Amino acid sequence: MAWVTWRQHRSQGLGALGLLVALAVAAVLTHLPIGSAFDRDSLSACVPPAARTGCDLIVPHFEGQFGGLVTATRFLALLPLLAGVFVGAPLIARELEFGTYRFAWTQGVSRRRWLLSKTALLAAGIVVAAGVASLVVMWWRSPFDALEGRIGPNGFDVEGIVVPAYALFALALGVLAGLVFRRTVAAMTATLVAFAATRFLVSDFVRPHFMAPLHRVIAATAAGGAPGDWVLSNTLVDAGGRRITAGREDLAVLHAQQAGIDPHTYILTLGWRRVISYQPAGRFWTFQLLEAGLYAGLAVALVVVALWLVRRTPA
Amino acid sequence: MSTPPLVAQGLGKRFRRDWALRDLTLSIPKGAVVGLAGPNAAGKSTLLSLAAGMLAPSAGSISVLGGDPLASPEVLGEVGYVAQGAPLYRSFRVADTIEYARHTNSRWDREIAVELLTRIDSRAKVGTLSAGERARLALALALGKRPRLVLLDEPFASLDPLAARELLQLLMDGVAELGATVIVASHVVADIQRVCDHIVLLSSGCVRLEGDVEELLESHRLLTGPRRPLGAIRGVREVVRERYSGRQLTLLAITDGPIVDPSWTVDPVSLEELLLAYMAPERLPTPPTPERVPLRWHG
Amino acid sequence: MIEFHLDPQSGVATYLQIVRQVKDALRLGTLDVGDQLPTVREVVADLAVNPNTVAKAYRDLEREGLVVAQQGRGTFIANTLAPASLQHHAELRAELERWLASALRAGLDEESIRALISTTLREHQARRVA
């Protein structure tokens, strides 16, 4: 089955290779100004826990300078989806759509072995490709990771071991969608929708609770959490611990302005404080392991369902 | 080994609410060249798909070379199946397709496959081949695994007479070398009557006629005579079909002895004529009564 | 070597046609003792007929003592048909020529003659079977 898998997915493999090369070239080219700016402004001295005077100005300036690029790299989180849409979905859907399953499944290889071998071999290739992409991104993001941490949404989804896990999940999703919908385009669409929905749900509702968030109480007028942490919520509370709505805050500021007092000082005298709920930077690899495990587990479950279902197709 | 290559017991297959095959009981003799005849939508493709492990039965059972085609890949390795339209990967080259079959079948004989592919460029893409060449390629792939059972679903459809004849020659040559049993489904009797020694006639999912061709032709006669009310005729066991035209009456009958009544002209019947008679709507299945139990001829 | 041909419309079983063609060749002298018949595969590849049919024809001929099958080498003619048949052959031919002359005088053309012979032969065979 190794030859068969290679021959049938050869163009996909070459496409993936091309994509990785393009990614690497783009990374190198776009990193040149970043690296030189980092060195020129001696930003290495601003990497926490070090802090020298002027860092609170240079660092935001640096991040603002390259903010667009950083946001753009967040779109690389879509790369794993390609494994599902272009490799997984057509795998079975194409055979069913064009009737070639009547040839492929009547040779001396059972359907299950055909599906398992193909999926396993493709999964191996995809893990390698996704791993390489992840390493490229990690290299590219190293200055930003140093300054702002990687556990936040800018870095978490495109670095580390979750990237291959997302790709495996997408592949498994595509394969099952192909089996269920039996048409390539429908399978591709279903894969896209299911992948996006799952990723959104997990990253917004599950990931924050992988471990109980930590809390920190700081002065109402201070800035947010420590650099590198992933801030989940940042709320003003009054002396009694009740959350202060935006309306109440505006009212206080207005009151202060009418009385001619500095709003910040006024808020402090009211006894209000800021409560930060966050995940510390140090939990990055734990969270990576948990999320990668979750997606890999889902991938395995989907493949098991596919192996069960393939026996009953076309029924 | 005396396991019959294909045995069906009360086999039924339903798609949503329609039964494509119902209560089919059949046993194919080893080494026969079987013609699976019948009109379109008779259930021929469904039967072959079940035999090739493409579908699961809804009722009853089917056993191929002694095994379950759906569950065991060993059976698949011994069955050469060419589906309707000879589906193949169009973007593959001919050589790639052969490689594919070589890698997925434990018993692969390159010589057999190559013999069928003379005059076809091995570097040509499958999508550019003519219908006849594609049919030959599909046959080459099926025979190259040295099967014990060959299943062909409408292999001559969309082939010109020359290509069809060539395919038949190659098929028969392959069968002679392998000693395989063959089942060819075709709705055009003429394509297969040249080579079949066993016939299975399907219509609306049921077996209408089944048996050794020679025996069937020996036991059926066409009786022509003046139109008259019919009583029992000496030598006639059962009348299969009656036809009237003007003053003439033609009967297709199963005989069990010589027809001595001189008012009847007795002629042999062609296979095509015989199949048409058994396909006639008047012979739609009714609950079997003892007199109307369908004949079974086991060669 | 003899080359067989098949007439699928004749209503005569394939294996009988092969047997008959071998016998005709023996009578006409185109096949002699020691000549090899085409192998089953050669006949099958040429005519596109069932190999069982050819095998059956060769078996029938072997049973009648006209051919002998030698393992791994082929099927060979073992006996010719009795020379006496050649004489009958000559008498029948003469009779046939006289009949043909009458038929032509009666105004039948070649087509009609063939049709007449064909129909009469078929009816004759059917009556023999029935």
Description:
Chain A has 315 residues and is mainly alpha-helical. Helix content of chain A is 68%, strand content 7%. Chain A has 2 domains: 234 residues, no CATH class; 50 residues, no CATH class. Chain B is of the alpha/beta class and 299 residues long. In chain B, a hairpin with a 2-residue loop joins strand 1 and strand 2. Chain B starts with 5 loop residues before the first strand and ends in a 20-residue tail after the last helix. Chain B is built from 9 helices and 13 strands. Chain C is mainly alpha-helical and 130 residues long. Chain C has 2 domains: 70 residues, Arc Repressor Mutant, subunit A, CATH 1.10.10; 46 residues. The mean pLDDT of chain C is 85. The chains are: A mainly alpha (315), B alpha/beta (299), C mainly alpha (130).
Helix tally of chain B equals 9
Compute the average pLDDT of chain B: 87
- List low-confidence stretches of chain B: 286-293
Main interface by residue count: B-C, 31 and 23 residues
Count of β-strands of chain A: 3
CATH fold topology of the largest domain in chain B: Rossmann fold
Q: Biggest sheet of chain A, strands in spatial order?
A: 1-3-2
Overall number of structural domains of chain A = 2
Tally of separate domains of chain B: 2
Summarize the helices and strands and which ones pair or pack:
The complex is a heterotrimer of chains A (315), B (299) and C (130).
Chain A: H1 2-40, H2 55-65, H3 67-74, H4 79-98, H5 101-104, H6 111-148, H7 153-156, H8 162-181, H9 184-206, E1 214-219, E2 230-237, H10 246-259, H11 263-269, E3 273-279, H12 284-310
Chain B: E1 6-15, E2 18-28, E3 33-37, H1 44-51, E4 59-64, H2 73-78, E5 79-82, H3 94-104, H4 110-116, H5 131-144, E6 149-153, H6 161-178, E7 181-186, H7 189-193, E8 198-203, E9 206-212, H8 213-219, E10 220-226, E11 236-245, E12 248-255, E13 265-268, H9 271-279
Chain C: H1 14-28, E1 36-37, H2 40-47, H3 51-63, E2 67-70, E3 74-77, H4 84-105, H5 110-129
Antiparallel strand pairs in C: 1-3, 2-3
Question: Which short descriptors sum up this protein?
Answer:
heterotrimer; A: 315 residues; mainly alpha; three-stranded antiparallel sheet; 12 helices; elongated; C: mainly alpha; Arc Repressor Mutant, subunit A; 3 strands
Brief summary:
The complex is a heterotrimer of chains A (315), B (299) and C (130). In chain B, 28% of the residues lie in helices and 30% in strands.
